[in-house]
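During the reporting period the student researcher (J.K.) took over the structure-prediction task from the postdoctoral fellow and processed the backlog of single-chain submissions. One of the processed entries is reproduced below for the supervisory committee.
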Amino acid sequence: MLTERDQILFKKALTYANGYRELGMFDDALTELKNLDTRYENEKELLQMQLAILMEARRWKKALPIANLLAANHSSDPGNLVNLAYVTRRANSLEGARIILENAAKRFPKEAIIQYNLGCYACCNDDLDTAKKHLLVAFSLDKNYLDMSDTDDDLEPLRDWLNSIPKPDET
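J.K. obtained the following structure tokens:
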């Protein structure tokens, strides 16, 4: 059990690390976290901060074990599975990321981000019909994804189709 003082010091280290991350000083951010006592090493907030830093730094191979740990230990949070898929795509393969998200979609059918990313992955694999199906589900769950699709490079092969979908303020 952490004392109140320990909790304050832990939050302070996370805040400093995040500040370094925001400045693009990724090594300093990671050093700040490494200076914490080992009893914090499996704290969810610490793992999330490490993952955020490594993802922003595009250090995919180093991020992968942390993303795996978060997904395994906090599987009720769909965001952890989305992050695992994102890192897996960049560290290993698009196919591995797709499998992760297909399993996540079964557990979290109402999560638009999962459907959206499945649409992106299908598009990258030139499976445009499957991409459209996933994207339409994502758009029906959260209309903001339709706007996001305007600038998503993964969806370039579907640009004309996406432009033909009326925006919510156009209907």
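The committee noted the following: The chain has a mean pLDDT of 95.
J.K. will present the remaining backlog at the next meeting.
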